[in-house]
Amino acid sequence: MTSMRIETPEQMQSLGESIAAVSRGGDVLILTGELGAGKTTFAQGVARGLGITEPVTSPTFVMSKSYRSVGSLELLHLDVYRVSAVDQLMDLWSEIDAENALTLVEWGGPWVGEFGETVVEMRINSESEFGREINFTSYPPSGEAFLRRIESVLT
Amino acid sequence: MSIDQPLVLGIETSCDETGVGIVRGRELLSNALASSVELHARFGGVVPEVASRAHLEAMLPTIELACSQAGVSLSDIDAIAVTAGPGLVGALIVGVASAKALALGLGKPIYGVNHLAAHVMVDELEHGPLPEPVIGLLVSGGHSSLIKVSNGDFTSLGQTLDDAAGEAFDKVARLLGLPFPGGPMIDQAAQNGNSNAINFPRALRADPAHAFNFSFSGLKTAVARWVKEQQRLGNAISVPDVAASVQEAIADILTSKAIAAAVDQNAPHLVIAGGVAANSRLRALAAERCAVAGIELRIPSPTLCTDNGAMVAALGSHLFRVGAAPSPVDFPATSTLSVNEVLF
Fold this sequence. Notes:
- The complex is a heterodimer.
- By secondary structure, chain A is α/β, with parallel strands linked by helices.
- Helix content of chain A is 28%, strand content 28%.
- Chain A has one domain (2-137): 3-Layer(aba) Sandwich (Rossmann fold).
- A 7-stranded mixed sheet of chain A has the order 1-7-6-2-5-4-3, covered by helices on one side.
- Chain B has helices at 37-43, 48-70, 89-106, 115-121, 124-127, 165-175, 182-190, 217-233, 239-264, 280-293, 302-305, 309-321; strands spanning 7-12, 17-24, 27-35, 79-85, 110-114, 134-139, 144-150, 153-159, 269-273, 296-298.
- In chain B, helix 2 packs parallel to helix 3 (89-106), helix 6 (165-175) runs parallel beside helix 8 and helix 6 packs antiparallel against helix 9 (239-264).
C-alpha cells in the first residue's frame, strides 16, 4: 500500500494528470471516497492529463461515460453506486470496451475483482477537516504493475 | 383533417419512463405513462438493462392506453414522433424501433426528435404558442441546460460542467441520510428550515467564461465539510436548516443564471421544465425574480415537467405544422444528441 497527502483541489487535479501520464489501456482505477471527497476533481485532472477538452460530467445518471482523447488512450468513467448484484455489473461491463481506455470506477469498492486484470484502488480519506489522505492498493493478478507506475510519479 | 391541427402520437423512452402521448395541434388528448421506477427501486436506481426490458414490455399496453384515453384509433394518427436522444441508448432504441414500426405500418411520417427540445415545447399544450425568443431552463436528474429558442431554432447557451441539479439534490439527501429521490425530500425538510442558516457556495456565479454554465459537484463537498465540522465541534445538525440552505443555493444559482440569459439574449420569456421544476423554492424564487425583471415565467404542470410522451407529441406536432421534413426511416438513437439538433 502506498500513501500520500493532498492539501488542495489543484493538487488533486495534478495527481490525476500525473497518473493519466503513466496509464495504459486496460488499467482500472477504483475511486473510493465519500460524497465530496474529490473524486470528480480527480477525474477532471485525469481528463486534462489525457488531453480531453470536453467537460467531464457526472456519470451517475447514465452509469458510464466515455471520452475520446487526443492520444490513443480513451477515458471511461463509471459510477456503479446503483449496481446491487454482480450480474447487473456484468451487463454493464460486457457492453464496455476497456482495452484501449483508462477506466475510473466510482463506488466500485464491492466489486474490485470484476473489472479486469490491472486494478488499483485509490482510497480518498476526507475525515480530517482539511486535506485528503490517499492510499493506493493493488489487486491481483496485475494491479501491482499499475501501482508501480503510479508510484513512479508520486513525489 | 386540417394540416394545422395534426393528430400526433409521441413516444418517450430515454430513461425509466415509457411515455406515450397524443395531441391534436396544441391540444393535449392523452398522456399515458408506465414507469419502471418501482422495478428500479428494487435495484436502488435506474439500471440500463432493466430499463430496456421494462420499456419493451410496457410499450404496446402504453400505446393502447394512450389511444383509448384520447378516444382515437391508430389509423387516425397523422404523424409519429419519438425521442431519438439524448438518453440511455438501450432505452432509446426500444422507443425508436417501436415508432418506426408504427410509422411504416400506418404509412405515416415519423419525426425523431430531441428530448431536451421536447421538454421546452410541451409548455405549448398548457400556455399556448411558445413566444420567441424564449429561454428554457431544463433541470432534472440527468440534465441542467439553458436553451434559447428563436425562429424555431434551439441553441444551447450552457449546461452543467459536472453534476445535474437533480443529482445535487439526490446526493445531498444521501449525505444527510434522507431517502431517494432526494429532491422532494429536501424540499419537504426545507419547509421547516432557515435558508440563510448556512451560506453554501454558488459555483460559477461571477465567472464570465461560464456565464450560462453550472457546476454542482462542489456543493456536495461543501455540505460534507460543513457536516463534519459540526460533528467535530460537537454541534447538533439541523437537517431542515441544511436542506433549506442547500435548496436556496441551487434555486439561487439556477434562477440568477436563467434570468441573466433572458436579459442577455433579449428574450423576455422563461420556461422551466424537468423534474426539478417541481421544487417549491425554485418556483417561488423564479416567480419573484422574473416579476422584478419583467420576464414572463411559464412552468408546465408537474406531469408534463417530468419525462412523458405528450412533450414528444407536442414537438412532433410543431414540426409537422411548420412543414419540417420528416426523419429518414434509418435515423439512429443517439445517447449524446445536442439540443441544436431538434430533428433528425
